[in-house]
């Protein structure tokens, strides 16, 4: 006996979940309310012959809705703002006896109460905040309508129908993909949750398709341009596909809080087969090294076409792709970089660096890591779920660091709430608060098992938080958005508030500091070029009338930018005799041969100097990172820089190392100028130059950029860019 198959939704609901924009279920073209009397021909009633949507990039719909840059031949509008369509009937429309309405449908199981089936009535006057269609002109058999959408409408791709009422039922247009309409978030609409008042900010955070991401080290800040490419062909569909893949219910897709939270989970592949696989171990077999990507376009299109996560990403790649997702859907967004970012597994506001009694770092006990930098995103939206004042910029992070509600995601967390220590408000505010506010605590682990706090650095973590400036490629310091200045009363109050709301502090480091040593120590790392020797200079200052002797130790480590050490490449111990009230400098030479064989992706070196004052047993400790200067790619252009005209782009690289580079991949892209492309060179010999030429035909005018990267078996993070000014067609 066969068992009757049960519905997948198990009797708990009348219809299945409606969680796919791509799936369809078309309404009937004829809905009769009974039998049609003999002799009545339904064709005699009003019916639609054509629908015109004014969807060209120069049409008023796309220009007024700021969607004219999308390389997409469908109508794209922003919610809460009116747009025009024209319907042609089989005969002139008579409002006294003819009744019709426009319908928008999304997903496979549309319901009016869920906002997935939207009947738009013809009304005498449009009302703000409500769906409606107003007849603005009639010309023969044509009727032009102004359609107003709700500012809370679901964001996605809708199917459009026109339904005509007859005494015997409804006649509806059949499915026509040409009338499909994308509806996006609207930062220009004051009633939309993502409304952003300043026009220059909207231009930057919604419409700019090229960004700058800052990386490197606090003492050596680097930047690289990133192609967000949110308007490129196929990217809008790829972003909607991400929400489908997350099985996000369509009814929640009008809420930017939910959309950004789902996006932060879906950009990484942990636990949900999302867009990017993270890798921090310097092994990138069967994938692309993170530093080789120049933008989001290739990543998102590959994810959609392959239906598999793309290999590989690190924090700035996750942030770049997430920024594309947010801006493409209409949520204002920017990439943020935090220098000296605390990755503290239990968010206890304390990064513990354990030292041996001789001053060396105890790597077995030291579990917390300080990232040289960490990139995340901010998205702009109201927060009706929080008290007044916590809307605006929200921190969202798609790098898979910690589990939040069962998934690797982070945010949206109100930046204003983080600044004031109100970490009780959702989502993940304690984690972000710890990233920018933790103390660095140096603890000596004694042989008898006791721990002694040697020093506390309250200013190291969250040293500088930056983003790209509006309208330029420079850096904007936004540290004060996240925290009050060290030592201010407000800063202490914010910390006390965070502690009150449950953020842990493992031990009270207030007032248990040892008395300040008579000797100060600092060191500087010379600007170092990849493949060259450089010096580390350590300075000791004796502030007392006593003479001291010092035993010092320098450790040089190849580190991941996450602060995790891969290998110690340099050990040096030395003794220093300090006369009263004097200072002394010690120089340590670091040879290229000592670090080159072990170098990681970002050429980051970390130095740790510890010193013991023998007479007082005081321990002095300092750590600093440096990023080696890497050779650049040179991009040249010849020919007219005009829309529709061919120009030749040359990408050039010279190998500065004493070794041959193997398996060299070069990538080139520039939104509006060229599609992403790549080329392989089997090898580049020492001091030799390779050139790669491509013919490009720009299709977007104005300020544009070309970006190129190079990666090989032994040298990565090589990069170059060129600013262009593309002229309009004459």
Indicate the topology.
Blueprint: E1 30-32, E2 48-52, H1 60-64, E3 75-78, E4 83-89, E5 99-105, E6 117-120, E7 132-139, E8 142-148, E9 156-166, E10 169-172, E11 181-184, H2 199-207, E12 210-217, E13 220-227, H3 235-245, H4 256-266, E14 276-278, H5 297-306, E15 310-313, H6 315-329, E16 333-343, E17 350-355, E18 369-381, E19 392-397, E20 403-404, E21 407-408, E22 410-414, H7 415-419, H8 429-437, E23 439-445, E24 451-457, E25 464-468, E26 475-477, H9 479-482, H10 489-500, E27 519-525, E28 534-542, E29 548-559, E30 565-578, E31 583-590, H11 592-595, E32 604-613, E33 618-627, E34 634-638, E35 647-654, E36 661-670, E37 674-684, E38 689-696, E39 702-711, E40 718-726
Parallel strand pairs: 3-11, 14-15, 17-23
Antiparallel strand pairs: 1-10, 2-4, 4-8, 5-6, 5-9, 7-8, 9-10, 9-11, 12-13, 16-18, 16-25, 18-19, 19-22, 20-21, 23-24, 25-26, 27-28, 28-31, 29-30, 29-32, 32-33, 34-35, 35-38, 36-37, 36-39, 39-40
Helix pairs in contact: 3-5, 3-6
